[in-house]
Specification:
424 residues, TIM Barrel, 13 strands, binds beta-D-fucopyranose
Length: 424
Amino acid sequence: MVTKFPDDFFWGASTSSYQVEGDNFLSDWWEWEQSGAASPSGKACDHYNRFGEDFSLAKELGHNAHRLGIEWSRLEKEEGVWDQTEWDHYKTVINELVKLDITPIVTLNHFTIPTWLSRKGGWTNERSPEIFARFASKAIEKLGNKVQYWIAINEPNILAILAYFRGQWPPCKKNFDEALLVLKNMLKGYVFAYRDMHEAAIREDQIQPPKVGIAKAVTAFHPCSPYSILDRLTTYNRAKFHNHSFISSAIKGRVLLPRLGGEKLPIKNAVDFTGLNYYFRQFIHHQKPISKNPFGEVCSLEHHTDAGPTTDMGWEIYPEGLYEVVKNFERYDLPILITENGLATTDDSIRQRYIRDHLRQLLRAVKQGSPVIGYLHWSLLDNFEWDSGYTKHFGLLGVDYTSQKRIIRDSAKYYAEIIKTGTV
Ligand code: FCB
């Protein structure tokens, strides 16, 4: 009988390049900040220079895996022109992890894109899938002998919705059809990248074939009223679209998106593992006519007296949801990696409980045979939380942004104990 997490489980934390490195001034997000639309990211955690110190702290805390991003806008400063100095930088960063016996898990696209691409329409450009895949296979060429696990794209749905439908992130568009087009191009970009990365590894004679996946934002959707058939129907629709459509398209080799569906993709089964970013539950209620709004609306937590407390992001803390989404993704018969899970809080004792409760739920799934291969907490460091700037504290390590001093939080030590014993 399984009583613990597996011995070869990946334990660690996640970051993304833009949120921690600092000075990513050739990225579309930076340009947007400069326009005064949002608070500037500036030096962030200066992780570009301080990665060595950060990785030693992760090591001290027992981490054996680390998710990090490489910033596309540094590596391809102009279309098709590669910056060898920057590739060398990331080689050094990855070697540092390898030296510490920490498995690197590398994200290629975590929301930001180079400004030369955003000026050409970003992900709405019909060439964007190929342009992204070219970058992805270059990454295999340059770093593939040290990195096996790759997250080609982080949370495509979130980018499409927040940047192209809600107008909250650059380029601040409010057009659902455009959001769907972005999602479709990201899907194609992902599948092309998967294909080209595998081909590049063969071409480069790399011993280990890469394992390529995405980090998918997943929500534990519940019907607002479990007795309403229409609430249940819209909840099902929403989960199908938000949680599953991207991955199931990549697996089935066909675009399975509303309004834009049908197109055949060049390959099937383009997923080696599923990365899940899980944060919260949402209650969904229907809105008539369902034909016009098949995904319903999110119901306010005020109407749900049984809902848990919320974090500084206003997200409900619902640990069972981690169990629910993991069980829900067993259907793909692929290894599952928790690529993000965490909370914004200034009360570290809440973080400690959050880690305990979520890992209990994860262990529950593992005991039942779920193929979970690792857990990466969001985040290693307090960092730049997109349009919330530096106001949200997600880190196992606190950061004093003036002195750039790192502070090890008690929750980080608590997590280290869990890692040590393999149980919670
Ligand atoms: C996820 C993002 C990550 C971080 C967390 C809080 O949606 O992937 O960059 O901002 O939320």
